[in-house]
Amino acid sequence: MNFEKHIIRKGTSLNDALFQLNQIVGEKILFIVDDESRYIGSITDGDIRRGLIYNSSLEQKIESFHPEKSKFLSENKFDLEQLIELRDNGFKVIPIVDNQKKLKQLIDFNHLKSYLKIDSITMAGGRGSRLSPLTDKIPKPLLKIGEKPIMEHNIDRLISFGIKDFWFSVNYLKEQIKEYFDESKKEIKIRYIEEDQPMGTIGALSKVEAFQNEHVLITNSDLLTNLNYEDFYLDFLKNDADISIVTIPYEVVIPYGVVKQKQNQVQGLQEKPTYTYYSNAGIYLMKREVLASIPQNTFCNATDLITDELSKNKKVISYPFSGYWLDIGKPEDYKRAQMDIKHIKF
Fold it and tell me: Pairing between strand 144-145 and 148-149?
């Protein structure tokens, strides 16, 4: 959020504050700072109107007027639960300050669903051969679903959850992906992981020298989903997991009666049972140190890494998800996505 328009200096009159508020499109709130940009408090147009009712003067200085309800959080000292509590108690714009109480940023829940301090990795290096000839000259992540590419749908949803640090793993027709995404327009940081050769679904991550956050979200670029990333992350934290895998329930209906037996002894009968299995959705949360164990410059799939971590007794959990999820791998999937995008709220 570009918050300069929301900043007002100590010593400003209520009259000038009203004028500045009138120029703002969106949340009518100002954040008061001193001459060294240290945070003092906040004031809204509603606060000023209520003050005028009780005989406040338009010449009154704002620092002597701002209400005590103003809340803020200290940079690197707050957790997600604190932020959610403020959001759920009606605080829509929350200032973040550094250890000198200087205003660093604003979290605006009028535009964000959450604020997740995690790295996001999008695996976008595949050839997409099953969607040929569509992918002969365009990388699959840039195929349009509705008005924008598959990958942009995913990135925009991740941004809506407050994620700022992005990594794109690219290979096939990578220059097109680099040309398409403009980090300045989306107010995010994009770093690229370039594969010189196919390295599997996670092998390219061995090239990353330093992630920005303790936890890393990894997604395939050819998915459409309305997964709640905040809930996924909270579940990961609650379980103190090393790895969490989004799983999709898949039902198998046996069209016959099933005989349960041990050796040749019948132990029971079940008529046309349904069994539910859970499929890997291609979306993972991992602790940063887990990714450090990926072998350097070696072909490695995510399933290989997970199997290896299980052998080390690492905690790997499943996050069952029953919302919208579509893997766009075949032409029929691509056609379905074109229809679904008109009705599914992402």
Answer: antiparallel
What is the structure's pLDDT at 343?
A: 87
- The Cα 200–Cα 243 span in angstroms is 18
For 265, the enclosing helix (H) or strand (E) is strand 265-270
Helices (H), the chain: 14-22, 45-53, 80-88, 150-160, 174-180, 183-186, 229-238, 288-291, 302-311, 331-340
pLDDT at 314 over 90: yes
Neighbours of 167 (CB within 10 A): 23
pLDDT tens-digit series, residues 10-57: 999 888 988 898 888 778 889 999 888 899 888 888 888 887 887 778
Dist CA 106 CA 157 (whole Å): 19
Asked if residues 242 and 215 have their Cβ atoms less than 8 Å apart, the reply is: no
Collapse the DSSP code of 135 into the 3-class scheme (helix H, G, I; strand E, B; otherwise coil) and give the result: coil
* Phi, psi dihedrals of residue 206, rounded to the nearest 5°: -65, -15
Distance in angstroms (rounded) separating the CA atoms of residues 327 and 254: 25
Report the C-alpha gap between 137 and 133 in whole angstroms: 8
Identify residue 134 by its one-letter amino acid code: L
Rounded Cα distance between 16 and 23, Å, is 11
